[in-house]
Specification:
Layout lengths: L1 H19 L3 H6 L2 H29 L30 H5 L1 H21 L5 H35 L5 H25 L4 E2 L10 H17 L8 E2 L2 H26 L42
Antiparallel strand pairs: 1-2
């Protein structure tokens, strides 16, 4: 902290002033007992500043195992990593979230295409099977995005996040909503306006997903250029949620771009032993200390 560093410099220069610039008149006015009291007060100030530094550091860092009930509303996603819901996310998942998202969506399209090609004799059973598969894969994708978002929020709150993970999480969210929109259309084709694909045609599955991908990109970038419109309440809710999430992503990306990433938080200053500080603890020192002008004390 700059305040602590300035205090250290002032204390060192003040001590150097007494050692090298001995003034008998000033020393008679400023007794050693008063100097010791000033040193003790300086120690107390530094101790209070260290306590304030510790409180500030604990308030901006995510929850840890030693702190209970310290998860606020703003740090909810980061608190998924605290001791109450503590679990370890494999790093290869968070680093390759886009690849896993593409795999899940591709697997979803392949299974739906195979179901449409070989529908079977029982049509109702085929519809139920396709619905279960679609919902299961999209829920898996949703859990994956939530876990990655929790890791991302944890790093952003600790000022250690990187733009690569942020962009991957954003793209994965776009892919997730494109799959969710496809599921809702397959379950209820009348829930969307201006979408006239035949859901029973196996070729139309990929084309349908690509159109909803365009809708997801349009909603994710807040440009609104897609002609597809939700018709029922839950589709309206899904599109609204994606727009809000996209706004949060934009704010996070902008904040990450304009603010330099903080590397390592400063450690505490060395303690004062016997009123002496190391000279290297000061940020900048001059070889010739500046002697302050205290005015005339001849009248004392």
């Amino acid at each position: 902290m700059n305040i602590m560093a300035d205090t250290n410099c002032l204390h060192i220069n003040f001590a150097t002033f007494f050692n090298e610039r001995y003034d008998e008149k000033f020393f008679k006015w400023f007794q050693p007992a008063q100097y010791s009291e000033a040193v003790n007060q300086a120690r107390l100030i530094l101790h209070r500043l260290e306590e304030a530094e510790s409180i500030i550091r604990d308030s901006i860092l995510p929850c840890n195992e030693e702190v209970d009930d310290s998860c606020g509303l703003l740090g909810f996603l980061a608190c998924l990593q605290c001791h109450r819901w503590r679990f370890n996310i494999p790093k290869f998942i968070t680093k390759n979230i886009c690849i896993f998202s593409l795999i899940l969506q591709t697997l979803n399209l392949i299974i739906l295409t195979l179901i449409d090609i070989f529908p079977g004799q029982n049509k109702n059973r085929t519809i139920i099977l396709s619905a279960v598969i679609m919902i299961s894969l999209q829920l898996s994708h949703l859990v994956l995005v939530i876990l990655t978002s929790a890791e991302l929020a944890k790093k952003l709150l600790s000022h250690s996040g990187n733009g690569f993970l942020l962009c991957q999480s954003y793209i994965s969210t776009i892919l997730l909503f494109s799959g969710i929109y496809t599921v809702t259309f397959r379950l209820n084709p009348k829930g969307w306006k201006f979408v006239d694909e035949n859901i029973n045609d196996p070729v139309q599955v990929v084309e349908l997903w690509s159109k909803f991908l365009f809708l997801s990109v349009s909603s994710g970038t807040l440009c609104g250029s897609s002609s597809f419109l939700p018709k029922v309440w839950y589709n309206n809710l899904l599109v609204s949620i994606q727009m809000l999430l996209s706004f949060i992503y934009f704010a996070s990306i902008l904040g990450h771009s304009v603010r330099p990433t903080l590397k390592v938080m400063p450690t505490r200053l060395p303690t004062i032993n016997g009123g002496q500080l190391r000279r290297d603890s000061c940020i900048s020192q001059s070889s010739q200390p500046v002697v302050p002008d205290y005015g005339s004390i001849s009248g004392r």
